[in-house]
Amino acid sequence: MNYPDFNEEDFAADDFFQRWVLEQDIESESFWQNWLVDHPEKRLIVKKAQWIVQNVSFTETWSPAERAAMWQTIQANLIQNIKEEAPVIPLWRRLGWVAAASIVLVLGSVGLFYSRWSDQEIRTSFGEMRQIKLADGSTVTLNANSTLKVANDFLEKPSREVWIEGEAFFDVTKRIVKAGKVPFVVHANNLTIQVLGTAFNVINRREKIDIALEHGSVKVVDEQNTTNAVVLKPGEKVSRVAQKAPLVKQAIQIEDYTSWKEKVILFKQKSLTELAEMMKDMYDIDVVIDNPALKQETFTGSFPADSAEVFFDKLEKMYPIAIHKDGKVFHLK
Amino acid sequence: MNSAVQQEDETSWWLRLLRGEPNALAFFYERYADWLLKYGLSVAYNRELVQDSVQELFIQIWNRRENLTVPQSVKYYLMVSLRRIILKDVMSARLTTDLFPDHTLAVDDQPGVDFEEVAEANVRKLQAAVRALPPRQQEVIFLRFFDKMSYEEITGLTGLDYQVLRNTIHRAIKALRQALIHNIDLLLPFFLISAI
């Protein structure tokens, strides 16, 4: 290859160059790093080529509603087995009314919070979701069983500071005072999320933290060790499974983390143990897995946020599981 | 997830599908619908056509499951099949492509004040430029740069000759570069101070 004569177009269209940018395998990495040492004058051209290769993206998204409508069309066109099935009693009938009532989704009112006097604390109960408009115009959608705290001098301080426990989606507006940008800072269990203008989802439950970015950019910093920091790009998330555990970044489908706002709960490859924790966190429904072999079984699917019976129903159809209710506890066998 | 594990897992789900378990079809739909819709748009930029084609794909798989075998990679199999369905419709000239939304094309050329803004403007310009490419070029750009498929895999999927594929990618990159010609230089000061 005649690399010294290459312009950014040629680099970006070169298979081996693409391998370096896209896959970063050892062979291409060491070749290009060495090559740059020998050809420092090509650095900017290489940077430009790299930028093009990295930033090609296909951002069109499909809403959960579109996907669900498509699935209905598919199902309507499937040629069914003629085999007669035994009549099925809908699960929620068998479970009785308590279950249905305990998961009613209370549609939140939009409240305005002027935090001039003292720290504001907004709390949602089980099964409740609420949208909050902050004094700077940012909106916070608070999921069930979650708490948002807003500093009393929210607008006066050099940075806008809030604290979150549970799960929330933040849509932050840019704020400029005297030609300077005012950062927006979210604190979650010793992690700091630094924001300019952006939208992202935070889960902070059971010591586990999950921050998923929809658009814009955020920096996540460990407050106890500030060198432990990660910058997120749209479509990436960072998670920490326990206090003092490392921060792990990975690419995601952002809808998996934001569909709850549209009242659709999505699962991808979630173990039944994780699902049981989620039912407890969001609906205060106790799920006990009696058969240890089931704990590692995974579930992929969705259910409407306001009807958990659909969830139990799907679960029963997918696995040889018997579900029965004992007092307020659901047993999976 | 380990891809060998995923494959084994998918094989058992596929077998359940062949045996006629509706849940197995739902499993693959949940796992791949999003991805197929995205890929489909790179083959033909028409949301309605792509939606119809993805529906048709899943209906076909179910209704013809007696004649199906277990593919080596379900994802690859689904992409090849979807591509065939879309191109069949395009050939029969049933539909044209959607217009790319105008506001994304009219990115203002005002130089931004910080890296974030300059980069964002460039990314939007690049996205619009990708959508303005001819369909074949959009698809190879999707497969190589977004799906990170190797050249060999792409020739297998599209039936393009290796040399033709290289030329197609080169032409696409050239067009993208043209679209960014003034804007990308605004990033240079930031590149100067950043490490590779």
TrEMBL record, chain A:
<feature type="domain" description="Protein FecR C-terminal">
    <location>
        <begin position="265"/>
        <end position="328"/>
    </location>
</feature>
<dbReference type="InterPro" id="IPR006860">
    <property type="entry name" value="FecR"/>
</dbReference>
<dbReference type="Pfam" id="PF04773">
    <property type="entry name" value="FecR"/>
</dbReference>
<protein>
    <submittedName>
        <fullName>DUF4974 domain-containing protein</fullName>
    </submittedName>
</protein>
<dbReference type="Pfam" id="PF16344">
    <property type="entry name" value="FecR_C"/>
</dbReference>
<feature type="domain" description="FecR protein">
    <location>
        <begin position="121"/>
        <end position="219"/>
    </location>
</feature>
<dbReference type="InterPro" id="IPR032508">
    <property type="entry name" value="FecR_C"/>
</dbReference>
<dbReference type="InterPro" id="IPR012373">
    <property type="entry name" value="Ferrdict_sens_TM"/>
</dbReference>
<dbReference type="GO" id="GO:0016989">
    <property type="term" value="F:sigma factor antagonist activity"/>
</dbReference>
From TrEMBL, chain B:
<dbReference type="GO" id="GO:0016987">
    <property type="term" value="F:sigma factor activity"/>
</dbReference>
<dbReference type="GO" id="GO:0003677">
    <property type="term" value="F:DNA binding"/>
</dbReference>
<dbReference type="InterPro" id="IPR013325">
    <property type="entry name" value="RNA_pol_sigma_r2"/>
</dbReference>
<dbReference type="GO" id="GO:0006352">
    <property type="term" value="P:DNA-templated transcription initiation"/>
</dbReference>
<feature type="domain" description="RNA polymerase sigma-70 region 2">
    <location>
        <begin position="28"/>
        <end position="92"/>
    </location>
</feature>
<keyword id="KW-0805">Transcription regulation</keyword>
<dbReference type="InterPro" id="IPR013324">
    <property type="entry name" value="RNA_pol_sigma_r3/r4-like"/>
</dbReference>
<feature type="domain" description="RNA polymerase sigma factor 70 region 4 type 2">
    <location>
        <begin position="125"/>
        <end position="176"/>
    </location>
</feature>
<dbReference type="Pfam" id="PF08281">
    <property type="entry name" value="Sigma70_r4_2"/>
</dbReference>
<dbReference type="InterPro" id="IPR007627">
    <property type="entry name" value="RNA_pol_sigma70_r2"/>
</dbReference>
<dbReference type="InterPro" id="IPR013249">
    <property type="entry name" value="RNA_pol_sigma70_r4_t2"/>
</dbReference>
<comment type="similarity">
    <text>Belongs to the sigma-70 factor family. ECF subfamily.</text>
</comment>
<keyword id="KW-0804">Transcription</keyword>
<dbReference type="InterPro" id="IPR036388">
    <property type="entry name" value="WH-like_DNA-bd_sf"/>
</dbReference>
<keyword id="KW-0731">Sigma factor</keyword>
<dbReference type="InterPro" id="IPR039425">
    <property type="entry name" value="RNA_pol_sigma-70-like"/>
</dbReference>
<dbReference type="Pfam" id="PF04542">
    <property type="entry name" value="Sigma70_r2"/>
</dbReference>
<protein>
    <submittedName>
        <fullName>Sigma-70 family RNA polymerase sigma factor</fullName>
    </submittedName>
</protein>
<dbReference type="InterPro" id="IPR014284">
    <property type="entry name" value="RNA_pol_sigma-70_dom"/>
</dbReference>
